[in-house]
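[step 3/7] inverse_fold.run input=structure_tokens len=118
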């Protein structure tokens, strides 16, 4: 049942993004930024953790989950380091995910021959 809930909630996030692409003049980049910012806002207000507890990976994997992770990291760093935590907390909390994305991109680029778009 957990897989079904995660699939449904993650699919709902994707469906909302697709509707925004199809029926508004928002670019995909602006929608992605809106997802991250909404994750930060919902995480800072304490709502996103309830969604993540219910939906599991369906809520933590999308970009809203990344925004929530940034908010949690900043909050923790501010509690520990004060004002400086505003600048360090988000990157500290998301360092593993960012590193995994960079290394995965490097491996794919080495395995295949990327080409510039013409």
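[step 3/7] decode complete -> sequence:
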């Amino acid at each position: 049942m957990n897989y079904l809930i995660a699939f449904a909630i993650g699919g709902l996030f994707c469906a909302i993004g697709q509707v925004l692409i199809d029926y508004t003049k928002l670019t995909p980049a602006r929608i992605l930024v809106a997802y991250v910012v909404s994750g930060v806002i919902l995480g800072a207000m304490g709502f996103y953790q309830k969604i993540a507890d219910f939906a599991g990976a369906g809520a933590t994997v999308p970009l809203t989950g990344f925004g929530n992770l940034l908010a949690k990291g900043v909050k923790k760093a501010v509690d520990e380091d004060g004002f400086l935590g505003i600048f360090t907390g988000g990157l500290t909390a998301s360092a593993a995910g960012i590193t995994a994305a960079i290394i995965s991109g490097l491996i794919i680029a080495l395995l295949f021959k990327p080409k510039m778009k013409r």
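[step 4/7] annotate
The chain has a mean pLDDT of 90.
The CA atoms of residues 41 and 83 lie 19 Å apart.
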